[in-house]
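Troubleshooting: if your tokenizer reports a length mismatch, compare your output against this known-good record of 201 residues.
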Amino acid sequence: MTVLPGRRERKKAATRQKIADTALRLFLERGYEAVGIRDVAAEADVAVTTLFSHFASKEALVFEQDNDFEQRLTQAVTGRAPHEPLIPALRREIQSLVRHCTADSATPIWRMIDESPALRAYEESMRLRHAESLATAIAADPDLSQTTLASRTIARFVIDAYSLAREAPSPDAALDEIFRMIEAAWAVTCPSGNSPGTAGL
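Known-good structure output:
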């Protein structure tokens, strides 16, 4: 049974979204470097302390779905059906994330990120954190029986697949090619009798 969020949680989520939407609009209108935290807070009609209670930094305002993406990646591991192969499950989630981030509406945002050293550095640290969370989920799954090193390696490959496909002329074709290589690497690490499976690839 799904538990619906209470009024307080809904209000908090709405405030967070309002701040993020306001920040993105200002960044795109004026330029990321030209907008300060106080500008965002004033435009969103919240206190600076309220803004920081939702976002730890100015960079985090741009990547407001960071936590959601990280949870989706780990849930692709922990929430897959019993005996469902890992790599196809991860591929489906990465494909969904890539399609979200390659929509026409996202183009100005990625252009802004590419032009800002601070945002590029933040994105890189975010990708490393996502890879570590994904590696932890893989290593903790008793059905996968992977070493920490193997789990971290595959997780890095998967996170890099997202970045490479997002930048490719044909994201789906890029994912097909990349995940064939990831599948091959995964097969090498699997213990005898623990077939990775290729369903869905």
